[in-house]
Design brief:
Residues 54-341 form the SAM-dependent methyltransferase Erg6/SMT-type domain. The protein has 344 residues and is α/β, with parallel strands linked by helices. Helix content is 45%, strand content 16%. The N and C termini lie far apart (45 Å).
């Protein structure tokens, strides 16, 4: 885990936002979301501002609690969380058939935990696409510390308008990132454009499942909590995502919700009924300790005003994710592997 201590957490709170403006940024971010009366249209039309605010506010919490790879994983019995996360990344690399020398794009790469792991695992060069300055700055430093700056790099850009020529990459993947896109077809079309003909795109998508009932108030509340706590304009269904990637021009190789047959629930690290020393910060007790610590850091002035509220909406997200997982109305690992045709 790259950021180990409370002072490291405090120093990163707010990302690139001026520390004096964190509280107002939290105000603006919260107003986008249905949990506070916000509208989906506003989230989609202002998605760049919303997502950037979210990651400026939340990244240090993620790294403090989760490590460098901000995603869930299909998990086997007897397997640690860290091991499952690495295997989840290796699985993607194997599905894409990555080989030494290939040029790969990570769409929505966070601070680069997966791209570093995948690059080392497959001996490929990986470019991480990210629109958040703070995450790129942090990712470049972690690349330097890991000694992979020669094979891993970051480009600041919007994945709806990528600054790459057509047919640039040998493979493209996205891990729990394209859920931020306001228009999935438009996002997938950009991925299609920059991918070489005959090559593949693999993705883990955040989706609602066929068990979700839009007329069920509890289901709607859970969805709102997940959107609020994770910077999402909307959560699309698995059917919508699959149709969108087809509409973008891809051929579907295979698709599956990997949560359906996971021996251990993907939400287990956040489940309040579970206690773990190895991932203590993710447990309900660990989150309570973090919440108390952030409140104290804010009180004494080491953390900016508004930090406790960020901790609170992330806590609300954790509750929504666990409840959504238990009711099987939400999955963070709807996987599909698709191919760009050799001829269009």
């Amino acid at each position: 885990m790259s950021k180990a201590g409370a002072l490291d957490l405090a120093s990163g709170l707010g990302g690139k936002i001026n520390k004096a403006e964190v509280k107002s940024a939290v105000d603006e971010y919260e107003k986008y979301h249905g949990y506070y009366g916000g509208k989906e249209e506003a989230r989609k039309s202002n998605y760049t501002d919303m997502v950037n605010k979210y990651y400026d506010l939340a990244t240090s919490f993620y790294e403090y609690g989760w490590g460098e790879s901000f995603h869930f994983a299909h998990r086997w019995s007897g397997e640690s969380l860290r091991e499952s996360i690495k295997r989840h990344e290796h699985f993607l690399a194997l599905q894409l058939g990555l080989k030494p020398g290939m040029k790969v794009l990570d769409v929505g790469c966070g601070i680069g935990g997966p791209l570093r792991e995948i690059s080392r695992f497959s001996s490929t060069s990986v470019i991480g696409l990210n629109n958040n300055d703070y995450q790129i700055t942090r990712g470049k430093e972690l690349n330097r510390l890991a000694g992979v700056s020669g094979t891993c790099d970051f480009i600041k850009a919007d994945f709806m308008k990528m600054p790459f020529d057509d047919n640039t990459f040998d493979a493209v993947y996205a891990i729990e990132a394209t859920c931020h896109a306001p228009d999935p077809v438009g996002c997938y079309k950009e991925i299609y454009r920059v991918l070489k003909p005959g090559q593949c795109f693999a993705v883990y998508e955040w989706c609602i499942t066929d068990h979700y009932d839009p007329n069920n108030a509890t289901h709607k509340r859970i969805k709102d909590e997940i959107e609020l706590g994770n910077g999402l304009p909307d959560i699309r269904s698995t059917r919508q995502c699959l149709q969108a990637v087809k509409d973008a021009g891809f051929e579907v190789v295979w698709d599956k919700d990997l949560a359906e047959d996971s021996p251990l629930p993907w939400y287990l690290p956040l489940d309040p009924s579970r206690f773990s020393l190895s991932s203590f910060r993710l447990t309900s007790v660990g989150r309570m300790v973090t919440r108390t610590m952030v409140k104290a850091l804010e009180y004494i002035g080491l953390a900016p005003q508004g930090s406790e509220r960020v901790s609170n909406f992330l806590e609300k997200a954790a509750e929504g994710l666990v409840e959504g997982g238990k009711k099987e109305i939400f999955t963070p690992m709807y996987f599909f592997l698709v191919r760009k045709p050799l001829t269009e």
